[in-house]
Write a structure and sequence with these properties.
Radius of gyration: 15 Å
Shape: globular
Bound molecules: S-adenosylmethionine
Strand content: 15-25%
Number of helices: 7
Number of domains: 1
Structural class: alpha/beta
Order of helices and strands: HEHEHEHEHEEEHH
Helix content: 25-40%
CATH superfamily: Vaccinia Virus protein VP39
CATH class: Alpha Beta
Length: 184
């Protein structure tokens, strides 16, 4: 079932970017970015922002916003199906996905295969079946609805990592990734 465009609430976007201390060292990808509101905020904080979206009109809107906000130099739109885009070529430090549970489950093997150890994967409202979050943040959005942010780290949270053993994966991080400062 195709996931429709339902934008993330402003309070959720701000809370997420604060929580992850998003900054210039990050490459932030939104899988199904809609009008780009999440990645654009990441770009405003200095991150390199990549917006992957199948809908042409939404891609155009995101690009216009990037120009208006003066972040075009660190903002890219990839128009297409995120199932067909090689995420290892983008090499994100953070991946955001606000998608249906069934879509997240379908994406899960791709995330495991293509994202580097230490990449933060964060989803709104729906968890990734079979993955263990490192942190879960509950919040109330500006419309008064309860929302949940699920935070995962590739190399710890994904099923293959748990089979391989946490200690081994922590060694992989140390060689590649700075320790991210979570603002809890
Ligand atoms: C729930 S909306 C989230 C929008 C945005 N991430 C946000 O949080 O504001 C899901 C978006 O995913 C896009 N989408 C759905 N399936 C997709 C696919 N296979 N490839 C790329 N984009 C897709 C939809 O067009 C829609 O804009």
């Amino acid at each position: 079932m195709a996931v429709p465009w339902i934008p993330s609430p402003r309070t959720v976007v701000d809370a997420l970017l604060d929580l992850l201390s998003v900054g210039p060292e990050d490459v932030f990808v939104d899988l199904g970015c809609g009008d780009g509101r999440v990645v654009l905020e990441a770009a405003k904080r200095g991150a390199k922002a990549v917006c992957i979206e199948v809908d042409r009109v939404l891609c155009n809107i995101a690009e216009i916003w990037a120009q208006l906000m003066g972040v075009s130099d660190r903002f890219a739109v990839i128009r297409g199906d995120f199932f067909k885009i090689d995420l290892s070529a983008v090499d994100p430090t953070i991946v955001y996905a606000y998608l249906y549970p069934s879509t997240l489950e379908e994406l899960s093997p791709k995330l495991e295969a293509e994202l580097s150890a230490g990449t933060v994967v964060t989803t709104l409202d729906f968890a990734i079946r079979g993955w263990s979050p490192v942190y879960v943040k509950a919040l109330v959005d500006e419309h008064g609805y309860d929302r949940i942010l699920w935070i995962y780290v590739v190399g710890i949270s994904n099923p293959r990592a748990r089979v391989a053993g946490l200690a081994k994966n922590l060694e992989m991080f140390a060689s590649r990734i700075k320790m991210r400062r979570f603002k809890l």
